[in-house]
Amino acid sequence: MELHEIPFEHRMAAHCETGTVTALLNHAGMQLTEPMVFGIAGGIFFGYLKSPDFPFPMFILRSKPGDIRKKISKRLGVKFREQTFRSREQGEAALDEAIRQGRPTAVQVDFFYMDYMPEWQRVHLNAHYVIVFGMNGSHYHLSDSYYKQKSQLERQKMLTARFAGGALAPKGMMFYPVHIPENPDYEKAIITGIRKACFNMIRLPIPFLGVKGIRKFAGKVVEWPAIARNMDDLADRVIKINIFLEDQGTGGGGFRYMYATFLQQAAGIVNDERLKIMSKEIMEIGDKWRNISYFAAKIGKSRDLGPERMKELSAMIHAQADEEHKFFTELYKLVK
Amino acid sequence: MKEKDLYIDDKTREFILYAEKDDETYAEVKSGSYAVRHCMDEFYRIRQNLENELNEKLEKGLISPVYYFMLMHDMGLRDLAGRIGISRRKLKKHFEPRHFLKLDDGMLERYAQVFDVTATQLKEMMTKQ
Question: How many CB atoms sit inside 10 A of residue B22's CB?
C-alpha cells in the first residue's frame, strides 16, 4: 500500500477558498492572514441571483469562486500551478503525483461528498475547496477549513466530488503554489484590492450586483411568499438568510467582519489611520447584517411571515444598501 | 461586534467568525452557530414535513424518486440536469413515474451517484407502491 503524508498544519478558517489559499501560502512560507487574503483579492461583494441552477433565488456575499486565487496570484505575484482534466484517471494520477512530490494540493470539490461533515450540513455545492496533504491506498488525507480536525475521504468519493457535473463543475480542478515572490508589494496589493472591491460594490452597471444587488434583494424579498412552494418552504428560505449570512463560511455578518479585520490589519501596513476608522464602520455595518440574520431566523422560526414582517425585513435590507453605498463611496475616495 | 456579544456556546457545530477582542483588535473567534442553537428543531420539522409530503406523492404514483431527491437535496433543475448530463426537458420527463420506470441501468446509476444512494434503492422506491 502506498502511503504518503506531508507534514501539514491544519487550521480552521472562516471561508473555504480564502482558508485554503491562506493555508497553502503559509505552508510555502508566506505569512498572510485569512482576512488579508480576502481583502487583497477584493473578495467582498453582493449579488442577488435567480437562475435555473438554484431552486430558489439566492444572494451571494463574495466574488465568484476561484477569484480569490486568481487575484492573489495577480496582485502578489504568487504563481499557482492550476490544472483541470477531461478524464477522471488523469485527474487522479495528477493529484497522486503532486502528493508524491510533497506538495499539499488544493482541490475543488462538490461539498456533498465530504462525508466527515454532518449529514444535515452537506449540500450539493461545487465550489468547495479542500487541501489534500496525504494518501494511502484507499483514502486521501484532507485539511478542510470548515472541519475541526484533519480528515480522510475515500478515493472513490474524492473522484466523484472532483468530477461532479452541474453548476460550477470542478472538472477535477487542483492547484498548488510553485513560486512565492521574495518581497511582494503588499501596500500596492492592498490598495488595488480595496479599489477593485469598491468598484465592484458601487460602480458595476449590473442591476443585481454590488449595492444594486442589495437593493434588488430588499425589493424582491417581499415577493418570496408568492414564489415559495408553501409556508414550510418560505420559513426554510427565510431562516436560510441567517445561514447564508453567518454560517456558510462568511466569518459572520456576511463577510463584513472579515473585511473589517482586513482593513484594520491593512491600516498598519499602509500606515493610514483612515483605514482604521473605515474598519470600524464596516464592523458596524456587519453588526447590522447580523441583526438582519437574527431577525430572519426569528420570524422564520415563529412563522411570523406576514406582509408586514416581510416589509420590515425589506426595509432593514434597504437601509443596509444605503449604508454600504455610503461606506464604499468613502472608501473609494481614499484609494483612488 | 465584541467577542463576548458574538460568541455562542454550542459545540454541535463550531466555526470561525471575526470579532472585536478586548484590546480592540479584530481577530478570529471559534463560536457555535445561532441557527443550529435556535432553529435546528424547526429545520428537522420542515424536512420531515417535506419527506412525508413527497412519500405520499410517491406512493400515489404522482412523482418519481428523481423528483423526490431533487427536492430533498434542494437542487435546481439545470444543476441536476448538468450533473446527470441530460437536458432539462429530459430531466422533467424523469419526474414522471412512467418515464422513470423505463430508465436503463446506466442512467439509474448516474442518478444514484448524485443522490448518494444505490440504483437498487431508487428502483425499490418506485416499486414499493
Answer: 8
Domains of chain A: 4-31+79-179 (3.90.70), 208-335 (no CATH)
Task: Name the band, by pLDDT with cuts 50, 70 and 90, for residue B11.
Answer: confident
CATH of the domain spanning B39-127:
1.10.260.40
Q: Domain segments of chain B: what residues? A: 3-32, 39-127
What is the structure's pLDDT at A78?
Answer: 97
- For residue B14, the distance in angstroms to the closest alpha carbon of chain A comes to 8
DSSP A23-38: HHHHHTT----HHHHH
Beta pairing partners, A81: A176
**Cβ neighbours of B59 (radius 10 Å):** 12
Residue in A35, A165, A242 nearest the CB of B35: A242
**Which residues from B are below 8 Å from A266, CB to CB?**
none
Contacts of A294 in chain B (CB under 8 A): 34
Residue A20 touches partner B, C-beta closer than 8 Å: no
Q: Which three cell numbers stand for residue B76?
A: 435546481
Taking residues A38-51, report their average pLDDT.
97
For the segment A165-187, what is each residue's pLDDT rounded down to a tens digit? 999 999 999 999 999 999 999 99
- Between chains, do A243 and B25 touch, taking CB under 8 Å as contact? no
The answer, yes or no, to whether ipTM is higher than 0.85 is yes
Q: Which residue among A167, A243, A253 places its CB closest to the CB of B35?
A: A243
Give CA–CA dist A264/A248, Å, rounded: 23
Kindly state whether B13 is in contact with chain A, defined as any CB-CB distance less than 8 angstroms: yes
User: From the list A165, A246, A287, which residue is nearest B83 (CB)?
Assistant: A165
Digit-coded pLDDT (tens) for B46-72? 999 999 999 999 999 999 999 999 999
Which pLDDT does position A1 carry in this prediction? 54
| Cβ <8 Å between A13 and B16 | yes
H/E element holding A154? Answer: strand A151-154
Cβ <8 Å between B46 and A242: no
Position A2 pLDDT exceeds 90: no
Q: How far apart are the first and last CA of chain B?
A: 54
Q: pLDDT for B88-123, tens place per residue?
A: 999 999 999 999 999 999 999 999 999 999 999 999
Residue B21 has pLDDT above 60, yes or no: yes
